[in-house]
Amino acid sequence: MKRFGILSMEGVGSALRSVISRVKEATAKRSSELPKTAPRLVAVSKLKSLDYVIEAYDNGQRHFGENYVKELIEKSKDVKIQPLNDIRWHFIGHLQSNKCNNLVGVPNLFMVETVDSVKLANSLNISWGKLNKPSPLNVMIQVNTSKEESKSGCLRDQCAELVEHIITHCAHLKFSGLMTIGEMNHDWSQGPNPDFTTLVDCRKDICEKLSLSLENVELSMGMSSDFEEAILMGSTNVRVGSTIFGARQPKQASNVSSMQGSTQLTSQEANLSDASQQNVTKDGLPNLAALNTDNSTDRDSHTALNSTT
């Protein structure tokens, strides 16, 4: 049974440090075929007040993920955020083409992880180009690895064509990698998460077809409940929200500009996971049975990640 405690603003720092430690531990346990460089940690701050973002920033976090265009614009342009000139924003929600002009106006927009069509890529390319930025905008292709209608993303067999289009026709965009949402509540005793496996295979196919280096194509996979498993499978970018900031209220009930209120965090999420030390075999491969024993962390909402901004 989960034991809940109140996550104060100061609690964000300890929760963040716990996640960073778990990321490092999982990275160290990767197989010898995978790089030992820790993946980028994106703190998903959707529906959380600016105070939580600033507290995480003050504790060393720089990359933050948001799902809704309007919320990201409001946060990024708030006077309290302006002094944080090295903050890096990731947009990780479903994006409509008609919102691209608004999104690219976000100061310190670092990456859009959810490009899923030629139309959207073209719109982002035009919008970013109008700003005369010195560098292209980093983008990832969201892949619907499970082929679920409820999820956004292009299908695996469409991915190479979309990547080639971005590389060839979108001079203001930089193709950075692939992103997916893993199967919710996956039973690791039955084998690796099929969504993660599909994304790894998709990257291999694309690199072979387009003569790209595997090292230059990132994999964004893994959220609060499965980021350690994703790291063991080669993730270079993990998106962790509730384990750092606590459980979220539904969007309609949340006041992201509120300076008050508290949230809940499990005591397990606020401390290092002892079970994670058993997540690999002696050969350095994922110990799937052990990985399945700890499924208590809260998962970032699939619905929210794909909701229309």
What is shown here, in short?
With 309 residues, the protein is α/β, with parallel strands linked by helices.
Report the end-to-end length measured between terminal Cα atoms.
35 Å
- According to CATH, the homologous superfamily is Alanine racemase
CATH topology: TIM Barrel
- Helices and strands, in order, run as EHEHEHEHEHEHEHEHEHEHH
Low-confidence stretches: 1-6, 256-309
Helical content class: 25-40%
Number of helices: 11
Q: What number of structural domains do the residues give?
A: 1
Question: Compute the gyration radius: what is it?
Answer: 19 Å
Structural class estimated from helices and strands: alpha/beta
Average residue-wise pLDDT: 82
| Overall outline | globular
| Strand coverage percent | 15-25%
Strand order of the largest sheet: 8-7-6-5-4-3-2-9
User: What is the strand tally?
Assistant: 10
Question: Architecture in CATH?
Answer: Alpha-Beta Barrel
Largest sheet: 8 strands, parallel
CATH class: Alpha Beta
Function: Pyridoxal 5'-phosphate (PLP)-binding protein, which may be involved in intracellular homeostatic regulation of pyridoxal 5'-phosphate (PLP), the active form of vitamin B6.
Pfam families: Ala_racemase_N
Keywords: Pyridoxal phosphate
Modified residues (N6-(pyridoxal phosphate)lysine): 46
Characterization of the model:
- The protein has helices spanning 11-28, 50-58, 69-76, 100-103, 118-130, 156-169, 194-210, 227-232, 242-245, 288-291, 302-306, and strands spanning 4-7, 40-44, 63-66, 88-91, 109-115, 137-142, 173-179, 218-220, 237-240, 263-266.
- By secondary structure, it is of the alpha/beta class.
- It has one domain: Alanine racemase (TIM Barrel), CATH 3.20.20.10.
- The strands form two sheets. The protein has an eight-stranded parallel beta sheet with strand order 8-7-6-5-4-3-2-9. The chain has a two-stranded antiparallel sheet with strand order 1-10.
- The protein is globular.
- Residues 1-6 and 256-309 have low confidence and may be disordered.
- GO terms for molecular function: pyridoxal phosphate binding.
- The modification N6-(pyridoxal phosphate)lysine is found at residue 46.
- Belongs to the pyridoxal phosphate-binding protein YggS/PROSC family.
